Amino acid sequence: MRRLIEFAAVVALAVAPAATFAAPDQAPPPASSAEIPDGTIGKVGAALHDVAKVQEKYQGPIDSAPPAQKQGLSEQANAEAVQAIQSHGISVREYSNIVRTAQNNPQIKQRLLEAAKQSQ
Fold first, then answer.
1. Is 20 within the bounds of a domain?
2. Below-70 pLDDT ranges, the chain
3. How many domains does the chain have?
4. Alpha helix (H) ranges present in 1-120?
5. What's residue 46's pLDDT?
6. pTM of the model
7. Pick from 21, 49, 41, 26: which is nearest to 102 by CA?
8. Closest Cα to residue 81, out of 36, 48, 105?
9. Does 28 map to a domain?
10. What's the pLDDT score for residue 45?
């Protein structure tokens, strides 16, 4: 189970689930790893872990659902992911910006993955 969650977190970073939640007027992401405090990385990492669990929970049912039900399941998954993010005291925008930054910054990506593992 732990490996599956770790894999889901890596996939979450790779496919940018944050794009689903992204607001049109996003602030530019931080330029370097040092610009993101450890506390924020911890919150986003924990949220990333929870979002990966939501993705894991819904991926199979969405894939196997009839076309008429896929939209509803996707909306439920998005609502749960937003709730998971906000439950860690961060905004969806902040989460999205940091995950997007991690896709292009190996140091931030590593910090997030370590934080996600610690939140298990």
1. no
2. 1-34
3. 1
4. 2-15, 18-21, 38-64, 67-86, 92-104, 106-118
5. 94
6. 0.75
7. 41
8. 48
9. no
10. 93
Compute and round to an integer the Cα radius of gyration of the chain: 14
User: Residues with Cβ < 8 Å from 4, sequence gap 6 or more?
Assistant: 56
Under the phi-then-psi rule, with left for phi > 0, alpha for psi from -120 to 50, and beta for the rest, what region is 36? Answer: beta
| Residue 50 maps to a domain | yes
Instruction: Check: CB of residue 12 under 8 Å from CB of residue 115.
Output: no
> Whose structure tokens read 């896929």?
70
Query: How buried is 108 (Cβ within 10 angstroms: 0-12 exposed, 13-18 middle, 19+ buried)?
Result: buried
User: Structural domain of residue 61, as residue ranges?
Assistant: 2-15+35-118
Is the torsion defined by CA of 14, 27, 115, 106 positive or negative? positive
For the beta carbon of residue 63, count every other beta carbon within 10 angstroms. Answer: 9
Residue 24, domain member (yes or no): no
Helix, strand or coil, per DSSP, at residue 29: coil
Specify the pLDDT at position 119: 81
Contact (CB, 8 A) for 116 and 46 = yes
The confidence score (pLDDT) of residue 65 equals 93
